[in-house]
Specification:
about 15% helix
Length: about 180
C-alpha cells in the first residue's frame, strides 16, 4: 500500500508552494483531443516514481468536465508488478493548459501542459517552477527525429534535458484498463 501511495503522487508536483511561476503553459489545449493513453518517454527523477517502468497515464473527460486520471507503472522493471493510482484533474483557466490534479483530497498540485504537438502525438507536462517535467507520447517510443526535436524543445523551454531519465516501457497489452 505504501508503494501505491507513492505512485499516487505521480503528478502531485511538489506541493502547494507559492513561489513565482517562471514556466508558461500552452496558450490553448483541446481537452477532448488530449484524452486517452499517454506513455511516459522521459521524466525528471522524482521520489514517487522511483523504480517505475512502463509508465502510462490514462485520461478520460467526465460529464462535469473534470478528468479521471489513472497512472500506471511496473515496479522494478518493465515486467514487474503493476501499480496504479487514480486521481481527478480539472482545468483552472479557459486555455485548458493549466490544470490541477488531486490524488489525495483536499490536496492538489499544478499540471501544466507546457508543449504539445499540433497533432497531439507528444506532450510535455511541467511544473510552473520547473521542478518536474514529463515527456509523454501516444506511442511507447518516439521516432528518433521527433525525439531530437522534443529534446530541443525541452532545452528551449528552460528545462535541462540532461536531467531526464528514460524508463523502459512495458510490453503492450499488459496494463489495466483506462478510466
Amino acid at each position: 500500500m505504501k508503494r501505491a501511495a507513492a505512485l499516487a503522487a505521480f503528478l502531485l508536483m511538489g506541493g502547494c508552494g507559492h513561489a513565482p511561476f517562471d514556466s508558461q503553459p500552452m496558450p490553448s489545449v483541446e481537452l477532448d483531443r488530449y484524452m486517452g493513453r499517454w506513455y511516459e518517454i522521459a521524466r525528471y527523477p522524482n521520489s514517487f516514481e522511483k523504480g517505475c517502468h512502463g509508465v502510462t497515464a490514462d485520461y478520460a473527460l467526465q460529464e462535469d468536465r473534470t478528468v479521471a486520471v489513472v497512472n500506471t507503472c511496473r515496479k522494478d522493471g518493465p515486467k514487474g508488478p503493476v501499480r496504479s493510482a487514480r486521481a481527478r484533474a480539472w482545468s483552472v483557466d479557459p486555455s485548458n493548459s493549466r490544470l490541477k490534479v488531486s490524488f489525495f483530497r483536499p490536496f492538489s498540485a499544478p499540471y501544466w501542459i507546457v508543449a504539445l504537438d499540433p497533432e497531439y502525438r507528444w506532450a510535455m507536462v511541467g511544473h510552473p517552477e520547473r521542478k518536474y517535467l514529463w515527456v509523454l507520447s501516444r506511442t511507447p517510443a518516439l521516432d528518433p527525429s521527433v525525439d531530437a526535436g522534443v529534446m530541443a524543445e525541452v532545452a528551449r523551454l528552460g528545462y535541462d534535458p540532461a536531467r531526464l531519465e528514460r524508463p523502459e516501457q512495458a510490453p503492450q497489452g499488459d496494463k489495466e484498463p483506462t478510466p
